[in-house]
Design brief:
The complex is a heterodimer of chains A (113) and B (113). Chain A is built from no helices and 12 strands. In chain A, the strands form 3 sheets. In chain A, strands 2, 5, 6, 10, 11 and 12 form a 6-stranded mixed beta sheet that branches. Helices cover 0% and strands 53% of the residues of chain B. In chain B, the strands form 2 sheets. In chain B, strands 2, 4, 5, 6, 9, 10 and 11 form a 7-stranded mixed beta sheet that branches. The termini of chain B are far apart. In chain B, 37% of the residues are buried. Classes of the chains: A mainly beta (113), B mainly beta (113).
């Protein structure tokens, strides 16, 4: 079975500051990795995904993430956040070729002026 | 292309009643997955349908069921509602059921009183 740990339930940050949201996973088989964002009263939107290849993945809205196999991590970063980035962020994994996503508990990013 | 649509968006039911939620996938998508989102348990996989067949099921009681029609639209049903069933129910669609290309709908907010 797979599991995902997002250690930070809330991350406050000032506008234009950099941010890192941490994600660690556990799996006995190879996995795909994802970051999703959820704005209030909305569904999930895919930010980026790691399937294979380069370990640095770039996504939408200026976000990027780095896959580290030895540390089983997939941390999300943005060099300069905006007020509009305030949302909840979910890290997720799936078995390669599988059809089920396993999510972490989410990190609430709050961007302040 | 229209996105994933879910109806209704909001629903209030009483304990013991049953409820049916509907999901229309993106045109051309044949796989539909359902997830439950609650503050306590987070995002949890319910089941996945592909070409009218349930291919995968999460760890939920038999009160939770679903089906998929020949046009790929899907419904999920919850019978004998309990207070703990109050949640946001999210539907996701993909072309062939691969998790790396799932697109989420806005969800149905179910409140059980």
């Amino acid at each position: 079975a797979q599991s995902v740990t997002q250690l930070d339930s809330q991350v406050p940050v000032f506008e234009e500051a950099p941010v890192e949201l941490r994600c660690n996973y556990s799996s006995s088989v190879s996995v795909y990795l994802f970051w999703y964002v959820q704005y209030p009263n909305q569904g999930l939107q895919l930010l980026l995904k790691y399937l294979s290849g380069s370990t640095l993945v770039k996504g939408i809205n200026g976000f990027e993430a780095e896959f580290n196999k030895s540390q089983t991590s997939f941390h999300l970063r943005k060099p300069s956040v905006h007020i509009s980035d305030t949302a909840e962020y979910f890290c997720a994994v799936s078995v390669i070729g599988g059809n089920k996503l396993t999510f972490g508990t989410g990190t609430q990013l709050k961007v302040e002026l | 292309k229209a996105g994933v649509t879910q109806t209704p968006r909001y629903l209030i039911k009483t304990r013991g009643q049953q409820v049916t939620l509907s999901c229309s996938p993106i045109s051309g998508h044949r796989s539909v997955s359902w997830y439950q989102q609650t503050p306590g348990q987070g995002l949890q996989f319910l089941f996945e349908y592909f070409s009218e067949t349930q291919r995968n099921k999460g760890n939920f009681p038999g009160r939770f069921s679903g089906r998929q029609f020949s046009n790929s639209r899907s419904e999920m049903n919850v019978s004998t509602l309990e207070l703990g069933d109050s949640a946001l129910y999210l539907c996701a669609s993909s072309v062939a059921g691969q998790s790396y290309e799932q697109y989420f709908g806005p969800g149905t907010r179910l409140t059980v009183t």
